[in-house]
Write a structure and sequence with these properties.
The protein is an alpha+beta fold and about 375 residues long. It is built from 9 helices and 19 strands. A hairpin with a 5-residue loop joins strand 12 (about 275-280) and strand 13 (about 285-295). The structure holds zinc ion (ZN) (2 copies). One zinc ion binds near residues 107, 116, 150 and 151.
Length: about 375
């Protein structure tokens, strides 16, 4: 009997983590999405049902199937004239799972420029398969698709690994034909792509670009996770999620990093890092504060204020879903205390950590 309870406890922990790596800020739904995945219907190694099973297991809220339109290495074995087929199959496998949105997509697969371009929330992938890349991108826009630049840092297309705009990209951005950019793709993070997103008002994205199994590539059995984009949406409805993407309301979770525009990072950080105090000790002038990390991200904090701590250095790491006690030596009793920190693995710019300040009234 004891053993059974223990097992249930573990299962419960697992589901909580898988479904909710971050607490949603008030009045916001954090939608965990992966907008870039493949199956055997382009150059992936699995049938579309595996993509759906993984997404369900990992607790995603939204997944796009984005096969290469032009690159079809399995076509001799799986001849299919219809570029929507993998999405249709995926949608079938997802039936009955109302918590997972499955949306249609395609990867316009070209040399640089423009490189690889994803279109998601599209109606018909076949119409996006055009002779030239601009016509494909325009067709995706005609379907009101959300269009973004994939792996702009990819060394096969940028041998120095530096993401930069070509005149073609500027043309697309100026005409509002390109709406987002992958700052994170699979196992890569690009500071330059992050800066391009900020400078050009592009939506910041992180995707798995998974071809094989997410378990293997991202070491999920040992606590890893696929890179995902959290959309800060008004509701769980697809139309609201899509609008939020166009509005740039995203944060990206990649390994032990969380990154995004400051206005999106701040509410997520505030909802996931809490502080409480029990005030001064009875016989000393040391304030006790408890910090709580309510997320799956370890938080690396560096204190920026004038005091020192009784036990800790200024750098404090709070593991996922853990609490940490701090004892602050204020030297004389104060009525108010504010504790400013940077969170060094939560980024609001390529080299710019997020900031958070806790304020307390003391007795
Ligand atoms: Zn690609
Ligand atoms: Zn891809």
């Amino acid at each position: 009997m004891k053993k059974v309870f223990f097992l249930f406890g573990l299962l419960h922990c697992y589901t909580t983590w898988a479904q909710q790596p971050f607490q949603s800020p008030e009045n916001i739904q954090l939608i965990q999405s992966d907008l870039h995945t493949h199956s055997v219907f382009s150059d992936g190694s699995v049938w579309p049902d595996i993509r759906i099973q993984e997404a369900l297991k990992e607790g995603l809220d939204l997944i796009a199937i984005t096969e290469h339109l032009e690159y079809q290495p399995h076509q001799a074995d799986i001849p299919h004239p219809d570029r929507n087929r993998s999405f249709e199959l995926a949608q079938g496998y997802g039936q009955g799972h109302k918590n997972l949105h499955i949306i249609n997509g395609a990867e316009i697969t070209r040399d640089m420029p423009p490189g690889h371009i994803n279109a998601v929330f599209i109606e018909d992938a076949n119409k996006i398969l055009q002779k030239d890349s601009l016509s494909g991108i325009e067709a995706a826009n005609a379907q009101k698709g959300f269009v973004f630049w994939n792996h702009p840092t990819w060394d096969a297309q940028r041998p120095d690994g530096i993401a930069r705009l070509d005149p073609f990209h500027k043309y697309l951005i100026d005409r509002k034909l390109l709406h987002g950019i992958e700052v994170v793709n699979e196992l890569t993070f690009s500071e330059e792509a992050f800066q391009l997103a900020l400078d050009n008002q592009l939506t910041i994205l992180g995707t798995s670009d998974i071809h094989g199994l997410t378990d293997w590539l991202f070491d999920i059995p040992n606590g890893g996770h696929r890179p995902t984009t959290f959309v800060l949406s008004r509701s769980k409805k697809v139309t609201d999620i899509k609008n939020a993407l166009f509005e740039g309301r995203t944060v990206v979770w990649f390994q032990d990093l969380l990154l995004g525009k400051e206005e999106n990072i701040q509410p997520v950080l505030t909802a996931n890092l809490k502080a409480t105090t029990s005030g001064y000790g009875k016989e000393n002038v040391i304030v006790k504060v408890e910090l709580e990390n309510k997320s799956a991200l370890p938080m690396i904090l560096v204190y920026q204020g004038p005091f020192s701590f009784y036990k800790n250095s200024r750098t404090i790491t709070i593991p996922p879903f853990q609490k940490k006690q701090l004892e602050i030596k204020t030297q004389k009793k104060r009525q108010n205390l504010s504790l400013p920190f940077t969170v060094n693995n939560v980024l609001v710019g390529p080299r710019q950590p997020a900031q958070i300040e806790f304020k307390f009234a003391l007795k």
